[in-house]
Structure to design on (381 residues):
């Protein structure tokens, strides 16, 4: 015989896993056509404006070209001192250039800087031809990697972002790529923070305007074509939070610099991360029926943090929902209930509540006593 009731506790608790606080376009007006701002640690979406509409990535394409280099470096298939041959095809490419010498050889490290800092179309082609034999073959590999990362709306036709039919992505997909770069390549990500690079006697500055504004920015990449307008994929850290922003479709370099700074400032000012529970930390006890222990502690598998508007903190609520008592035997790790977190302007978060210990059933004598007690005293003892 068992007793069933729903046990719910509600508390405003003080931060690590996945919350989604979505601020609509009405919360902040921006001339940028496509925008997404996400919290890196939790994936919380703080602001979005047409984040899933197809767009031309322009030179933000080069983040994937560099990702492919980083991936090979991490796996040991390349070293920073390896060199690639410069073809006439790469040397002749117009637009932004690293000014690689035709017939010469360029080190992988210089090519990284030539792409990240100088946005070299020529350097991007050198990498594509060096890694895949041709730019077309490399673009196919880039697209395959993008889909593996979850960039489902992205197709690459070249390594530089040069306008081409069918070459497209979304603001959300570029944010996924930025997060993957930071997460997977901490050893190499620092190249994105370099403000200038000298190659072939020519010094060029990084085009990322946030690097020069004391914003906490340390990456990633600008982009521009006549059709697409001006765009920026950026990341910055302040006060223990890292945000990723993609802003696209602005009218000028000046507007890109001002608007990206304004968007980032707004997000850091309006939102904060609030730790709730650490993985393995007891959230609540559940009553046990016919077990060797009267209760079993319940925990979360991983840390849980929510990122919400600062003004919503007072209305943050956490509820543990479970049916108890839980009949023994109970195996450690078994799901007993669920934790539900709610706050204004945030999609509810649900996490499984797991038993933190085994609970063995009572023996025959213990079960008999418990049953008698239930019959005499009922479920309220």
């Amino acid at each position: 015989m068992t007793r069933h009731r729903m046990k719910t506790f509600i508390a405003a608790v003080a931060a690590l896993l996945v919350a989604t606080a979505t601020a609509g376009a009405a919360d902040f007006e921006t001339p940028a056509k496509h925008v997404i701002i996400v919290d890196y640690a939790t994936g919380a979406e703080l602001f979005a404006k047409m984040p899933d509409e197809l767009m031309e990535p322009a030179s933000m394409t080069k983040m994937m070209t560099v990702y492919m280099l980083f991936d090979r470096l991490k796996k040991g298939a390349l070293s920073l001192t390896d060199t690639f041959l410069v073809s006439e095809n790469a040397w002749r490419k117009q637009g932004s250039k690293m000014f690689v010498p035709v017939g010469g050889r360029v080190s992988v490290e210089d090519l990284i800087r030539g792409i990240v800092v100088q946005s070299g179309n020529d350097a991007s082609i050198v990498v594509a031809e060096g890694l895949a034999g041709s730019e077309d073959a490399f673009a196919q590999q880039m697209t395959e990697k993008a889909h593996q990362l979850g960039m489902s709306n992205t197709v690459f036709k070249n390594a530089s972002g040069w306008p081409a039919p069918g070459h497209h992505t979304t603001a959300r997909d570029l944010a996924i790529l930025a997060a993957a770069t930071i997460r997977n390549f901490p050893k190499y990500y620092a190249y994105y923070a370099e403000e200038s690079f000298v190659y072939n006697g020519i010094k060029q500055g990084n085009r990322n305007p946030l690097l020069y504004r004391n914003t906490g920015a340390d990456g990633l990449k600008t982009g521009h074509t006549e059709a697409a307008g001006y765009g920026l994929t950026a990341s910055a850290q302040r006060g223990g939070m890292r945000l990723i922003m993609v802003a696209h479709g602005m009218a000028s370099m000046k507007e890109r610099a001002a608007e990206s700074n304004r968007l980032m400032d707004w997000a850091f000012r309006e939102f904060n991360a609030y730790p709730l529970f650490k993985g393995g930390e007891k959230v609540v006890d559940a009553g046990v029926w016919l077990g060797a222990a009267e209760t079993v502690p319940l925990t979360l598998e991983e840390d849980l943090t929510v990122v919400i508007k600062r003004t919503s903190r007072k209305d943050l609520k956490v509820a543990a929902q479970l049916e108890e008592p839980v009949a023994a035997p109970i195996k450690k790790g078994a799901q007993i209930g669920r934790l539900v977190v709610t706050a204004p302007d945030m999609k509810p978060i649900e996490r499984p509540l797991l038993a933190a210990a085994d609970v063995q059933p009572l023996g025959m004598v213990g079960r008999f006593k418990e049953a008698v007690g239930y019959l005499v005293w009922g479920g309220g003892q």
Notes: Residues 362 and 368 are 9 Å apart (CA to CA). The domain at 5-12+281-300+311-380 is CATH 2.60.410.10 (Peptidoglycan synthesis regulatory factor (PBP3), Domain 2). The chain is about 25% helix and 30% strand.
